[in-house]
Design brief:
The complex is a heterodimer of chains A (about 190) and B (about 700). With about 190 residues, chain A is mostly helical. In chain A, about 55% of the residues lie in helices and about 0% in strands. Chain A has helices spanning about 10-20, 25-35, 50-55, 60, 65-75, 85-95, 100-115, 125-135, 145-160, 170-175, 180-185. In chain B, the strands form two sheets. In chain B, strands 1-2-3 form a three-stranded antiparallel beta sheet. Classes of the chains: A mainly alpha (about 190), B mainly alpha (about 700). Chain A: GO terms for molecular function: calcium ion binding; magnesium ion binding. Chain A: Keywords: Calcium, Magnesium, Metal-binding, Repeat.
């Protein structure tokens, strides 16, 4: 089943409402913004897959330092190129929505931060993460000494089983102590 | 839990590559996941047969709930749902009714949430502010919105119970008590004599005198009428109870709002500086729009990390101080503390003198008279502006850690602001009641100083009204005369001085204290000036727009962010201080001071509270007995015991949860050690296996 150009069927809409955390208005708005990204001939095809470059022109994602990782994580394509169908897009918005639970947000946050996709956050992942957070330019990067001290502190605080990496449950433990995470892990169209 | 199936799937793909002899970089304790070529390797493997225990617990809750929260792509979720729908064969009618009910309840909740977001005030503006300036500044505007709603609802309360009945029953109804007092005490004439100069209207508007004094704005206009014939309505009683209920209602709102913030603070165990993993994992705001906001946020985070790392090294250095240096530092801190207290006390003395002077010269006319009337407000504002600046300089000498400096500065400023208001009220009190001594010459006749204050409640109301207006005027004046020019100078004049001064920074704590101060003034004055909440609502709405304008046009964002949830809690705590001060004033005025005999709804009562016993005896016998019973010991002691028991239960529950969290954490550590042990065993075995193969090969 796919979504054709201009309208969403009523039962499809209610199915999406059941399977995601989005309200009806949010789904309709997402559909509108998604179809704006399609070219004319793509609009007639069901279930089109939009390449990552076009998704990244959305203003909500354009300047996000994690934009490529977000597209990669939510993409269901075989080639792992970060392209999204409309349903992938809805999954993305659902995880980033107002009413999504802490578990699902922390789960996806973990996958976004896991730059090498190996299921744990090791020193390389953490370093790339910190660089994304502070900006890639030379003046905003931390010095190597500061980076080393920071990564040591992070591992000391959150690596409970002392294996040198942060796994999903340790990550979720840290997240659960933060009061601001749910409200900041939010993308609203 | 939804993450469990994923872990189940991932465990199946673990491969211990140590046996293959990767040199060097493999640490034997590390478990690596082999990147399999399966295309959906990163997707959680959903367990198609739900475990029986889970099914019993969650199956009744409505499985769609489970599905929304499972981290699967849409196609898989749909497939699972189809399977689940097929898997529901024989469900009792009760089950299906329950499930339908939960489904419709959820739909109703979703619709309600949609409606609520439609009615929320200013949500788009707040989102824009949060995206561009961060959570700290947004928390200020959220607090302002909360105060606007609180004031508006309180106004509706007061209007419904006091204002409208007063208007309706103005000419109807008879006086409650028909006694008279000494003639001099009842002499109250607020209307000006003769021709009034034109600009006097403007002065009257600003100071609440003249045509504004004898109006619904102030206490003096309300009558002590009670309507008996068709509908029973006792206006003085309504006035009193509305005032008391208004305070209780505000307290409940603040505590309810604190409850959500406090729960979070308790769970997170406070915000520890140097909580690096929290900063790195949770501080990115995905709602940031635009390159500029993103770069800003990145600079913010960079600054935060640098500051925390630096504070850590400062702490290490401070721990390494010699004894002599420590003594010097502490002596310095103590003396600076005394210095700041001295400054604050000097400010208080200044306010006291100014209020005294202003009250003595209150009869003057014209512009000079207006200045004298506003003198307390001017001195308070000047003090509130200068003393924190000086305290900031003092704080530099004290050399606390940066986070401690912020808290210390805030506490000092709170102390200054609220107690300066207290000093003003104290001065007023000492003049109204001749410093509590009713034997003094002026106060013997009417129990209050009738010469200076024929209607003292209206006077107090006027003071609060003037404070509110002056606060708003000062904000507007500072906006127009200081902030806009500063931005124009900094933007257009590229000299070193201009760059050093820089654009304005939106300092959240100082602004929040301004709001708390304004709200405390309103609470103090609400008993004497019933329309003050309405005026305050309008003032705060105007303030919202003015502050938003100055934020977007004149300010650059603060580099040091204010943590948003703990700061909300702190704002509400400070608001409670203000509420406490206002309650003390209200209780004292109700119980102790003799109401004016010339005006107001309580004019012939010895105190405002005494209307309650009087009306009490008008109630029916049964009601009286019931109320006596509730107040008696036979009822209140069991109630007290019951509430102690309930409190003990909740405290025990909280400690049990805390212990179980600690226990689970320890268990997690143990499991990690088990893993390491097993890995070592496997290494050992595989090494032995290799050795055996080697020797077997060598033999052949």
């Amino acid at each position: 089943m796919g979504t054709t150009a201009s309208q969403l069927g009523k039962d499809l809409l209610s199915e999406y409402q059941e399977l995601t955390f989005l309200t009806k208005q949010e789904i309709l708005l997402a559909h509108k913004r998604f179809t704006e990204l399609l070219t004319k001939d793509e609009k007639d095809l069901p279930n089109t897959r939009v390449p990552a470059e076009r998704i990244l022109t959305l203003p909500e994602l354009k300047s996000n330092p994690f934009r490529k990782r977000i597209c990669h994580v939510f993409s269901t394509s075989e080639q792992k190129d970060g392209s999204l169908t409309f349903e992938d897009f809805l999954d993305l918005l659902s995880a980033f929505s107002d009413s999504a639970t802490l578990e699902i947000k922390s789960h996806y946050a973990f996958r976004i931060f896991d730059f090498d996709d190996d299921g744990t956050l090791d020193c390389g992942d953490l370093e790339k993460l910190v660089n994304c957070l502070t900006g890639e330019t030379d003046e905003t990067r931390l010095t190597t000494e500061e980076m080393r001290q920071l990564i040591n502190n992070i591992l000391e605080e959150s690596d409970i089983d002392k294996d040198g990496t942060v796994n999903l449950s340790e990550f979720q433990h840290v997240i659960s102590r933060s009061p601001d995470f749910v409200s900041s892990f939010k993308i609203v169209l | 839990m939804a993450s469990e199936p994923w872990r189940q799937g991932s465990r199946e793909v673990y491969d211990y590559t140590e046996g293959n002899g990767y040199p060097g970089d493999q640490q034997s304790l590390r478990l690596r996941r082999v990147s399999s070529r399966v295309s959906n390797q990163n997707y959680p493997q959903f367990d198609w047969n739900p475990p029986p225990a889970e099914k019993n617990e969650e199956g009744n809750r409505g499985q769609p709930r489970d599905l929304r929260g499972s981290p699967l792509p849409m196609a898989l979720k749909r497939a699972v749902r189809q399977v689940q729908q097929m898997q529901v064969p024989v469900v009792s009618s009760r089950e299906s009714w329950k499930r339908k009910k939960t489904k419709s309840l959820r739909k109703f909740k979703d619709n309600a949430r949609g409606c609520r977001s439609f009615f929320t005030l200013w949500s788009k503006s707040l989102q824009k502010i949060g995206g561009n300036f961060g959570g700290g500044v947004q928390s200020y505007f959220l607090f302002l919105r909360f105060l606007v709603v609180l004031n508006f609802v309180s106004f509706l309360l007061i209007a419904g119970f006091v204002l409208i009945p007063s208007i309706v029953f103005r000419s109807v109804g008879d006086s409650l008590v028909n006694s008279t007092g000494p003639k001099e005490c009842m002499d109250y004439d607020p209307n000006p004599q003769g021709l009034v100069v034109f600009y006097n209207y403007f002065l009257n508007l600003l100071s609440g005198t003249g045509f504004m004094e004898y109006s619904y704005l102030f206490y003096g206009y309300y009558n002590n009428t009670t309507v008996e014939d068709r509908n029973f309505y006792n206006i003085p009683l309504a006035y009193l109870f509305t005032a008391i209920f208004y305070f209780a209602f505000c307290l409940i709102c603040i505590i309810a709002r604190m409850g959500t913030a406090a729960r979070v603070v308790v769970v997170t165990g406070g915000s520890a500086v140097g909580n690096y993993s929290m900063i790195v994992f949770t501080s990115w705001d995905y709602g940031c729009l635009g390159d500029r906001a993103t770069k800003l946020k990145q600079k913010n985070i960079h600054y935060r990390l640098q500051v925390d790392l630096e504070e850590e090294s400062i702490k290490k250095r401070a721990a390494a101080l010699t004894l002599c240096q420590k003594i010097v530092l502490y002596a310095l801190r103590v003396s600076m503390c005394f210095g700041s207290f001295g400054l604050i006390i000097a400010a208080f003395y200044g306010i006291f003198v100014a209020t005294d002077f202003s009250q003595k010269r209150s009869g003057e006319q014209g512009i000079l008279g207006l200045i004298f009337q506003y003198l307390p407000s001017i001195v308070i504002t000047a003090g509130n502006f200068l003393v924190p600046l000086l305290c900031d300089q003092i704080a530099l000498i004290e050399r606390y850690a940066p986070s401690t400096t912020v808290i210390v500065a805030l506490l000092r400023a709170v102390f200054l602001r609220l107690v300066s208001l207290g000093v003003l009220l104290f001065t007023l009190w000492s003049q109204i009641t001749c410093a509590g001594d009713t034997k003094k010459k002026d106060c013997t006749l009417c129990q209050y100083n009738y010469k200076l204050y024929p209607c003292w409640e209206t006077r107090v109301g006027q003071e609060m009204y003037k404070l509110t207006l002056f606060d708003l005027l000062i904000n507007i004046v500072v906006l127009v005369l200081v902030e806009f020019p500063r931005r124009m100078v900094v933007d257009n004049w590229s000299s070193k001085l201009a760059q050093w001064v820089g654009r304005q920074e939106f300092v959240v704590p100082a602004n929040v204290l301004g709001l708390v101060y304004g709200q405390t003034v309103v609470w103090t004055g609400a008993l004497f000036c019933p329309l003050l909440p309405l005026i305050n609502t309008i003032k705060f709405v105007l303030l919202f727009y003015f502050k938003k304008i100055t934020l977007f046009y004149n300010c650059r964002p603060a580099l040091k962010t204010f943590r948003s949830t703990t700061s909300t809690f702190f704002f509400l705590v400070v608001l409670l201080f203000g509420w406490g001060l206002a309650t003390v004033v209200m209780v004292y005025s109700l119980a102790e001071i003799h109401p004016s005999m010339g005006c107001g709804p309580f004019r012939f009562f010895p105190s405002m509270w005494s209307i309650v016993p009087t009306s009490f005896y008008n109630l029916s016998e049964i009601t009286q007995e019931f109320l006596f019973f509730i107040g008696s010991q036979a009822f209140s002691i069991p109630l007290f015991v019951l509430s102690c028991v309930v409190m003990c239960y909740f405290i025990t529950l909280a400690s049990v949860y805390g212990k179980s969290v600690a226990m689970l954490r320890a268990q997690l550590k143990l499991e990690g050690r088990d893993k390491q042990f097993l890995v070592k065993q496997i290494e050992e075995l595989s090494r032995q296996h290799q050795l055996l193969k080697h020797t077997a090969g060598a033999h052949d």
